[in-house]
Amino acid sequence: MKKLLVIHGPNLHMLGKREPGIYGAETLNDIDVKITKKAKDSGLDIEIQQYNSEGDIVERITRSDFDYLIINPAAYTHTSVAVRDALLSAPKRVIEVHLSNIYKREDFRKKSLVSDIVEGVISGFGAMGYIIAVDVIAQWAGNDS
Ligand code: DQA
Is 80 in contact with 113 (CB distance < 8 Å)? Predict the structure, then answer.
């Protein structure tokens, strides 16, 4: 069974309470339940983690014990050379997901330090973005097995 790791970055544990006009009313747990169901229905082994600190994200990525990664680096998207370098150190097929459309917001959010080293980016579709990403990965897993 192929293993999918999902990493949620800083402040995403606050979903539901945090700027609901931008990020929606669902909690992270609500979203994780949907991701887990979709992954299991697609025949994937799934692990989901949320980290507020950059070092924890780097450590988890560089353990490299997974086949595919969905990552919402949240604020680190725009700042973290360390997360970028971790992704380069442990090369896997990666999809970058954002709940909001980062290109429709402040200028500093328009730059992602990881977009050019991942397979693709899904931004602006809320929690549905994660489900779309799992769908893509399920197809890769089918072709890779
Ligand atoms: C986010 C967008 C980032 O700019 C922001 O810092 C987040 C969430 C998103 O999912 O839309 O925390 O990654």
Answer: yes
Annotated active-site positions, please?
23, 98
Match domain 3-144 to its CATH number in 3.90.580.10, 3.40.50.9100, 1.10.760.10, 2.60.40.10: 3.40.50.9100
Read off the DSSP letter of residue 120: E
Residue of the nearest CA to atom 9 in ligand 1? 98
CA pair distance 38, 45, nearest whole angstrom: 11
- Name the residue with the closest Cα to ligand 1, atom 8: 74
Sequential DSSP letters for 76-126: GGGT-HHHHHHHHHS--EEEEEESS-GGGS-GGGS--SSGGGSSEEEESST
Q: What is the C-alpha to C-alpha distance for residues 86 and 8, in angstroms, rounded to an integer?
A: 15
pLDDT tens-place string over residues 26-59: 999 999 999 999 999 999 999 999 999 999 999 9
Residues with CB under 6 Å of ligand 1 are 11, 72, 74-75, 77, 98-100, 102, 109
- Write out the two tokens for 13: 């544990």
